[in-house]
Every structure is written in structure tokens, then in C-alpha cells.
Amino acid sequence: MRGMRTSSPLKATEYHLGLLKAKLAKYRAQLLEPSKSASSKGEGFDVMKSGDARVALIGFPSVGKSTFLSLMTSTASEAASYEFTTLTCIPGVIEYKGANIQLLDLPGIIEGAAQGKGRGRQVIAVARTADVVIMMLDATKGEVQRSLLEKELESVGIRLNKHKPNIYFKPKKGGGISFNSTVTLTQCSEKLVQLILHEYKIFNAEVLFREDCSPDEFIDVIVGNRVYMPCLYVYNKIDQISMEEVDRLARKPNSVVISCGMKLNLDYLLEMLWEYLALTCIYTKKRGQRPDFTDAIILRRGASVEHVCHRIHRSLASQFKYALVWGTSTKYSPQRVGLTHTMEHEDVIQIVKK
């Protein structure tokens, strides 16, 4: 055993795999970038962003996306029993808890969509701009569809129900690669990180791992154009499968079972969607008057008083003196707060100017 270095926890094959992963990611990115010579621009689905949040419906052809849109919104999207009934992007609006949620009915995705089959690229480009993805699956063949769709979205840099890896990465002018980690790494090592960075022609950088990440996640950080978004898996057509199967599907994480044909469980889906969008309603109040509960300001969860000011009028934050807040975010009601105070759902605010 003498003379053998046993300090590295990673096997040689793992280095090799990590390098291959980096190469794969690099070549895939080159494939996805349209060739420079092609002058004609691809037709995207230009949809005005309206409402307070945007939800994209993604799924194979004929899983009930258009039926779902027609049921949930006042927009009628053509639905028929053949594939690719929907050819462009059809927007609709759901009104729920005072918020307008824009629902986008996109054409069905088929295998190889990431390479541009069946207008797949445009569909995925629209999906990247959404706040939440609803993945419509046919309950009778859900597992296969789910893994295929996840693969398609992964290959264009959409990560579903994951958070951004906690890695600090900063390319530098010189000084080589400085590598540090605050936790014990089991999947990456300094050597592997160097190899991956060299593959991307990065020789000077600062890398700090704050959690135990895989080589794939590290590559995501280097490339940097990844979108992390919440996704709801919706199994449609549950009226065609057994009760036990419905129960099994409903117990999966991030999953909801529905039937558009028999209008089952749609209200629960809306509740789940609201959870995933993480929106808060905030009501305003004038001095000496009752709060205005008809017109709410819809903001993202974790919004501060400053966000509320900007939403009312952009000059309001500069003239802001203090605000009075009633609701669950305060220790007592009303509480005098400053610009940094975080608002919660259904708080009432009264803003006092200088």
C-alpha cells in the first residue's frame, strides 16, 4: 500500500464522469444557441405579461391543457380529440382572492422539443418567463410523460422545484483558482472543480461551496443562465383510473389530481397554485376612513413597505415619513413602521408623507 495516495475521497471514474458532464453541458449549450448565420428570427409567442403572476401550462399534446384553460378562465381555447389542436400561445386570466393570475395555454411538447421539434423551443422560452409551471399529465400514462418532460426542461436550463445551489462563484483577472468550502463535500473535490473550470476555459476564479453540491449543480452555477421555478404536477383524467391509483398519485410531492371532464378537484388545484405563487394581498387605507377592501395591492411574499410605495406611485417612497400597519406582520395594531418592514398577507397599510 506504500506510496499510494488515499487522501482523495473521489474515485478516478468520478472525475472522469464530472468532466464528461461539463463537456455535455457545454456542447448542449452550443446546440441550443441558434447558429449565427441564420438571419431570420424565430417566431416567438409574444404574450403581454398581464395580471399579478404568470402560470404556464406545459404538457404533451391532448392531456387537457386547453380544456383546463377553458374551465378556469373565461377564455375559450379550442379543444379537440386530436394532437396539436393548440398551435400558438393562448392567454387567459383567473381571478382568485383579488389577484389576476395569467394562465398560458401552450402547444403540446413532444420528445425532442429542446432541439426545436414541434415549436418546442418557443414553448419552452415562454415557460421560462412564467412564475410557476403547471405540468399537465395524463393520469393513465403519467410516469413516462413526467420523466420525459422533466428531461426536456432540464436540458434547456429550467430546474423544477429546486433552489439555487449555495455556491459563491466569481471569475477573476488573475491569481489562479481559490477553492473553499464551509461544509464537508462528498460529491465534489477541489481537483474536480478545477477540471470543470478548465473545461470552461476559466483559470482564475474564487469558488466557495456553502452546501454539499453535485458536479451538475456546480456546472449550473458556472453557466449561470438557469431558471429555478416551482412546478405543480397535475394529473388529469383521473376518472379513467382506479381509486387506489388516484390515491397513490395524490400522495406524491407537488402533485394534484384533477378531472377536467368531470370538474373534480379544481378548487383544490387553485388553492395549491396560490400557495406556489406565494402572493400576498395588501389593502390600503386613507386617514380617518375605513380600509378599501375592494382593491388590493398584490405583491410577492416577503415584500416590504417600500415595494408597496413603489406600487402605489414611484415618487411616494422619497416622500415617505412613516406607515401605520394593521395585521399579522405587526406586534400590535396599528404599528408605526419604516420602509424596511415586511408585509404579510391581508395587512392594511396607511402611509404618511412628509
Short recap of the structure:
With 354 residues, this protein is an alpha/beta fold. 28% of the residues lie in helices and 25% in strands. The strands form 4 sheets. Strands 2-3-1-4-10-11 form a 6-stranded mixed sheet, sandwiched between helices.
Which structural traits does this protein have?
single chain; 354 residues; alpha/beta; 6-stranded mixed β-sheet; 5-stranded mixed β-sheet; 16 strands
Can you give a write-up of this model?
A six-stranded mixed beta sheet has the order 2-3-1-4-10-11, with helices on both faces. The longest helix is centred in the first third of the chain and has 21 residues, at about 10-30. The chain is an alpha/beta fold. The chain has helices at about 10-30, 65-70, 120-130, 140-155, 190-200, 215-225, 245-250, 265-275, 305-310; strands spanning about 55-60, 90-95, 100-105, 130-140, 160, 165-170, 175-180, 205-210, 225-230, 230-235, 255, 280-285, 290-300, 320-325, 335, 345-354. The chain is about 30% helix and about 25% strand. Strand 10, helix 7 (about 245-250) and strand 11 form a beta-alpha-beta unit. Helix 5 crosses helix 6 (about 215-225). It starts with 11 loop residues before the first helix and ends with a strand. The chain folds into three domains: about 55-80 and about 85-160 and about 225-275, Rossmann fold (3-Layer(aba) Sandwich); about 165-225, no CATH class; about 280-354, Ubiquitin-like (UB roll). It is built from nine helices and 16 strands.
Q: How many independent structural domains? A: 3
Strand content: 25-35%
Shape: globular
Going by CATH, what is the homologous superfamily of the largest domain? P-loop containing nucleotide triphosphate hydrolases
Mean pLDDT: 77
Task: Record the strand order, biggest sheet.
Answer: 2-3-1-4-10-11
Distance between the termini: 78 Å
Low-confidence stretches: 3-7, 35-42
Order of helices and strands: HEHEEHEHEEEHEHEEHEHEEHEEE
Q: How would you characterize the largest beta sheet? A: 6 strands, mixed
Q: Radius of gyration from the CA trace?
A: 25 Å
